[in-house]
Amino acid sequence: MAHMNHETEADTSAKRPMEIASPLGIPMERSGSGTSWLPDAAPMRAIHARAGGWTFMTHGVVFGMYDKQNGPRGVDHLASLNWAMLMATRQTASSKLQFRAMGSAEPWTLGAEGYPLLLQTGETYKGQPLYDRQHPHDLFMELAVVAERAVNDRVGISLYAAPVGEPAIGPVAFPHRPSAMSDPLAPIVHHWQDASHVTFGVLTAGVFTRSLRLEGSIFNGREPDETRTDFDYEGRSLDSYAARLTWNPSANWSLSGSWAYFKSPDAAAPNESMRRAALSVLSAHTFSAGAQLNTTFVFGANKHAFADHLEPSYLAESSLQLGGIHNLFARAEYVRKDAEDLVLGPSGPEGEFDVMALTAGYLVELGGPSPIRAGIGARGSINLLPASLAPAYGSSTPTGFAVYVRLAPQIMSSGHAMGPHAGH
């Protein structure tokens, strides 16, 4: 029996080569996008291998999607949303060194104008603000090195340096949140909460314990330009700054608060700077029947230099996986956008507008235990608008619909029983 137990442990170790925790014993499942934290119990989707003292992990997703947004401002679109990430990590009980590279083929598979999404705003196309569309991701989404070291058995320090990366702002970015991984479309609150996840030039330093992390960033405050295949450094420096405090009170929860100053984020308004505050709560729970529930709540608010008030936003989203096959998800959003954001034109209504979006969807995963798993899904949304916007959108409740296929790595673990969370 002792011999059998020994062989079982060896076999398990071979299948789970990544059980080394980060400095201070913090499990790597906790690592989110950039330097953010997830709950330790969040599920992991990744393929990993080991060579010498290095561990290599690949993570990503490919969606093939037909998207239909209804009303006079809506169109239909067939495209692919995608991104992939490779990580190389070398770590001991007291230190970690990690290299990351993440990119997307969306400049070609999605196009420069992005995909239709009612009420979405942010960035530009042909020199004009994008509206009712979500912009594509850049070819280079992250190129970064992460170093962590334990100072003693209670405190550690960290450094994140990224020619392209994510400063310490807001929650885990939506493409990497477990609560959003079955939904291919971005939240309409994206540019009020987590749009800085692709930033060209970031330095972040932090100090952490087993449950708290305090970090500060200096970064390039300008949003990516329309040329999605280059590096956006021309005429810019690390001119903006941010700070974030994160608390993980248990394996099931992660709470954070952040504040940031962006110098001239919008090329169309180069003299206007912006401040952003964000609060988030993330939870991950696995139940006795094997169901996995992941939930996110976020408050984010922007304040532009020449405005005397905040523009608030709220998001609540949740994903429930049943039997490792069935995925139910939902999202509720509220945000205040003005006539300039929505590009209503000189003949449209003026002022600010409280808008909401409600989304629900379902994805079924196909196949067995292969490393890459396919899924088929659908999602529908209804938008709730004030009456003054009804003429522009054809209704106070315009709708949208999407059907899609998804390719993503198999879920490797649930909670902290197995190795790292693949960075995101």
| Residue-averaged pLDDT | 90
Q: Helix- and strand-based class?
A: mainly beta
The CATH level-2 architecture is identified as: Beta Barrel
- Tell me, briefly, the overall form: globular
The largest pleated sheet is described as:
16 strands, antiparallel, barrel
* CATH class descriptor name: Mainly Beta
Distance between the termini: 39 Å
Radius of gyration (Å): 21 Å
* CATH topology group: Porin
Strand content: over 45%
CATH homologous group name: Porin
| Element order: H for helix, E for strand | HEEEEEHEEEEHEEEEEEEEHEEHEE
Total number of strands: 21
Helical content class: under 10%
Number of helices: 5
Structural domain count: 1
Biggest sheet: strands side by side, in what order? 3-4-5-8-9-10-11-12-13-14-15-16-17-18-19-20
